[in-house]
Amino acid sequence: MTRQEVGAATNVPGVAVDKERLIASGKKHLWLSFERGDSFFDEDGAIMASGDGCYWIDVDGNRYLETFGAQGMGTVGYNHPFMIEACIEQVKKMSGHASLWPVPVPEILLAEKLASLVPRGLTKTIFGLSGSDANETAIKIARQYFKIQGKGTKYKTISRWHGYHGSTLAMNAASGHTHRRTAFEPLPGGFIHINMPYCYRCPYNMTYPDCELACAEELRRVVELEGPSTVACFLGEITTASGGRVVPPPEYPRRIREICDEYDILMILDEVVTGFGKTGTWFECEQYDLVPDILTTGKAICGGYAPLSATTVKEEIAEVFSGSSDRLLHHGFTLAGNPLSCALGLAHIELIEKLGLIAEVPEKAAFLRTELEKMQENSKIIGDVRGKGLLLAMEIVKDKATKELLPAGPEAFARVVSREGRKAGLHAYPAGNRIQFGPSMIVSQEELKLIVDGTARIVRALEAEFL
Length: 467
Ligand code: PLP
Description:
Layout: H1 3-11, H2 19-29, E1 48-52, E2 55-58, E3 63-66, H3 69-72, H4 81-93, H5 105-117, E4 122-128, H6 131-148, E5 156-160, H7 169-174, E6 191-194, H8 214-226, E7 231-236, H9 252-262, E8 266-270, E9 294-297, E10 309-314, H10 315-318, H11 339-355, H12 357-377, E11 382-388, E12 391-396, H13 410-423, E13 426-427, E14 429-431, E15 434-437, H14 445-466
Parallel strand pairs: 3-13, 5-6, 5-7, 7-8, 8-9
Antiparallel strand pairs: 1-2, 2-3, 4-10, 9-10, 11-12, 12-15, 14-15
Helix pairs in contact: 4-11, 5-11, 8-9, 12-14, 13-14
The structure holds pyridoxal-5'-phosphate.
């Protein structure tokens, strides 16, 4: 492929590109992630050329309004001038860097900025490149933390079924999606799972508040069974992202915190998706007055403009890692903390502050949620509307009373959601039997209406096709 062709394919929407050639080349040379086979290239809008605000544009010049904020990363749109300027400014100074080189200025400044945003007491950050590695770093910190203190038997991680924490082998083990685990078994040891606080389909057939938080108490039961001297950490989200926008009962996060404290277990809070504003606060844990021991972030930390993640740790935990080299952290990635990503992280936080975007979330979220709930009232198949802030989901069922699933499997469901979304000018996001939402924080009222109208079209098509 010539440089001219690449330029046309990647930079200029609507300019004729040899799409057939790109498709053939993609099918032959590019291995797509996450259960997408080569037939993905045959779908309309399979190849993206550029982005414009909350829209991305395919190589035919079609525009798609993002309903899911670029898989959780998108906050300020794809091409915000402030971010572009920050990018150019940093690249002119220095682009590349390696982790064992002298420390780049933006890496220090971003760590300092994060310390001012996260809950009190969390002071020290190590950077990574993805949410997966941020979580894995947190678990490695927890394990070494106990080893340094002569408690090396504490190594296990307890997380939740249906939680998603990443795609490395260890994060497959920590995550609770069966289909992403079985292909790679045997998985690394030391990962135990408990149930989700999924009230719509309570795993205990109980009802809140009569359940007395059986789902949180399961943590205590499992710690007792495994042996408290073997458990290093709990890893979980508050509102789940890929796990279906499940919001726990209000007391759940603090109950988990209490159980962790009781058994000397570190609480790792995964805010890879909920971090940086979409729930209505910088971090969701603020809403529960909850301070985890370790907070992981990624995706939206720099609005998706560059790979970056962060593992931010309580001061007293970080302080244990000092002295001889065997007490220092045996971990890192060459490209982590690179100056371009960190400069974009700083610019992104500054932009959110300047535009006051987080303060706008409650109103935008209330509009979207109310419209989805109205749709639910008039629909036979929208079983549940849930989520926090702009991170919402609709659970689709065959029968609202029995909550029986649609006869269509996830693939057929996804096909209809994507197809009808495209027809409505949306990039809709199917996940299992859900349609999930998480638009960028810059989304306008008009764009929210387009999302609502397009979703109504998708729901009508699902009813027509599967009922
Ligand atoms: N944690 C959560 C809650 C996620 O939703 C994801 C990805 O969807 C990850 C971690 C993994 O992040 P990444 O895909 O950047 O590795």
